[in-house]
């Protein structure tokens, strides 16, 4: 596997570098004529009201990069292939059959090609850290005992190549349904017993060490895929770092949980696991009033994936009552059918408007909807991914993007309206430049290695589609 490293090496920034912007969205709001200096990937100084140095240029409006708290990178390669209807009903469970058929064919080389494409697109779309909920563990043909992290290494190489920050969430997946049902043959590439998972986790953590700000977490796939004893065992084995779990995405899962335990899945988890700030409950779409209040009070993050949840017909997360109860949230691109940080936030708000027949539901009284959505996703996303507090502030990661002053949707607007215009009108086309750890990774809307990454992705897709 060839590696191209944008993150380390001789040209690493070590002498400090300065960036100047006409506007920057700091923790205290928009500031004018801002100069940042960056050293070792962190913002070391932030001055406002300063003109750029003689001969230096000044960018337009800088905002912090958005964390993408939930991704299955390989599913990027399925986009556009699951929008046809067969003879029966199409739902989440028929989509999953297509995903399984596709996953069976992916080699580690394909994984690198597809994940690099997905990660480059994430950076172009305003995401600067990804939580990769990684369950496609084994190479085709079964268990590769020689290296349990063979597929994880491909994901890590893709992060290294593209420059995106990675929180790797190795998935523990042992059962096909509630009550410890055995895996189906199509799930064999995902499965691990406790010993194998421990080796996979250890090898993944080791492979992650070259990344300057990689984080490793723990991901019990869902309550369908782990028994209560296995969940308890995992939590005692890994007492620190993020814990992510898919939960209550589908009504069918809620019904199966009730049949198994007499409790809804989120209620069961809150009653039987130490859910706190470490946790990210991915989707958590179907909640009753008590679950909303108790999930909010737990300090855990609700991992919302509005584009995928719409694509799969999951349902609408009760964002209004959850926020009113002080709940924390972040957004994720999940199936990667479309990758756009602004659009995830837009659809989150629009789904609320469509069901409640009102406007600006996620805004604080008197405030901007977009600004509230962005602030929530920054804080909640960083918490869920075990990342340092985000924002344009001294000590924060130098992960930021510049909105494009030439984009028509931003024309003539005062800074207070820029976030709303980006989210509700422009979308990813308004992301002009992106820096990660102070290094330019996207220029004029294009990842700096876009051509090479896209070429390799097309070749991988040609192989994957051959004979499907
Ligand atoms: Zn998922």
List descriptors.
single chain; 468 residues; alpha/beta; 8-stranded mixed sheet; 14 helices; 35% helix; disordered N terminus; binds zinc ion
Could you explain how this protein is built, in words?
With 468 residues, this protein is an alpha/beta fold. Helix content is 35%, strand content 20%. The strands form 3 sheets. It has an 8-stranded mixed sheet with strand order 3-2-1-4-14-15-16-17, covered by helices on one side. Strands 5, 6, 7, 8 and 9 form a 5-stranded parallel sheet that branches. Strands 10-11-12-13 form a 4-stranded parallel sheet. Helix 8 (289-298) links the parallel strand 11 and strand 12 (301-304). Helix 2 runs parallel beside helix 3 and helix 2 crosses helix 14 (450-465). The relative contact order is 0.16.
């Amino acid at each position: 596997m060839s590696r191209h490293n944008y993150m380390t090496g001789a040209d690493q920034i070590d002498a400090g570098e300065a960036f100047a912007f006409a506007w920057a969205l700091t923790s205290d709001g928009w500031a004018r004529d801002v100069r940042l200096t960056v050293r070792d990937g962190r913002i070391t100084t932030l001055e406002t009201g300063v003109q750029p140095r003689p001969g230096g240029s000044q960018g337009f409006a800088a905002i912090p990069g958005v964390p993408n708290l939930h991704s299955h990178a390989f599913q990027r390669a399925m986009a556009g292939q699951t929008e046809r209807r067969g003879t029966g009903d199409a739902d989440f469970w028929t989509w999953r059959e297509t995903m399984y058929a596709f996953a069976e064919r992916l080699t580690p080389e394909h994984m690198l090609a597809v994940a690099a494409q997905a990660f480059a697109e994430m950076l172009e779309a305003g995401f600067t850290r990804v939580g990769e909920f990684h369950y496609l563990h084994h190479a085709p043909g079964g268990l590769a005992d020689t290296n349990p992290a063979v597929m994880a290494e491909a994901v890590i190489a893709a992060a290294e190549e593209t420059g995106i920050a990675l929180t790797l969430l190795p998935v523990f997946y042992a059962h096909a349904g509630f009550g410890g049902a055995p895996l189906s043959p199509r799930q064999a590439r995902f499965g691990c017993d406790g010993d194998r998972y421990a080796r996979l986790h250890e090898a993944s953590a080791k492979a992650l060490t070259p990344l300057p700000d990689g984080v490793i977490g723990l991901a019990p796939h869902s309550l369908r895929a782990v028994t209560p004893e296995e969940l308890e065992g995992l939590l005692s084995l890994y007492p620190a770092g993020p814990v992510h779990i898919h939960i209550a995405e589908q009504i069918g899962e809620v019904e199966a949980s009730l049949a198994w335990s007499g409790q809804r899945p989120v209620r069961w988890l809150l009653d039987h696991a130490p859910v706190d700030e470490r946790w990210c409950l991915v989707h958590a779409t179907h909640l009753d009033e008590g679950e909303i209040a108790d999930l909010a009070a737990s300090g855990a993050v609700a991992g919302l994936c509005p584009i995928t949840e719409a694509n799969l017909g999951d349902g609408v997360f009760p964002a209004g009552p959850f926020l009113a109860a002080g709940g924390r949230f972040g957004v994720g691109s999940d199936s990667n059918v479309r990758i756009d940080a602004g659009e995830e936030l837009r659809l989150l708000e629009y789904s609320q408007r469509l069901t409640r027949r009102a406007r600006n539901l996620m805004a604080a009284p008197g405030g901007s909807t977009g600004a509230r959505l962005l602030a929530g996703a920054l804080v909640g996303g960083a918490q869920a991914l075990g990342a340092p507090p985000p924002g344009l502030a001294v000590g924060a990661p130098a992960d930021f993007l510049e909105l494009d002053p030439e984009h028509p949707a931003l024309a003539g607007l005062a800074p207070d309206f820029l976030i709303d215009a980006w989210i509700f009108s422009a979308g990813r086309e308004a992301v002009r430049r992106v820096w990660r750890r102070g290094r330019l990774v996207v220029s004029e809307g294009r990842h700096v290695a876009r051509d090479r990454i896209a070429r390799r992705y097309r070749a991988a897709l040609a192989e994957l589609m051959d004979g499907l």
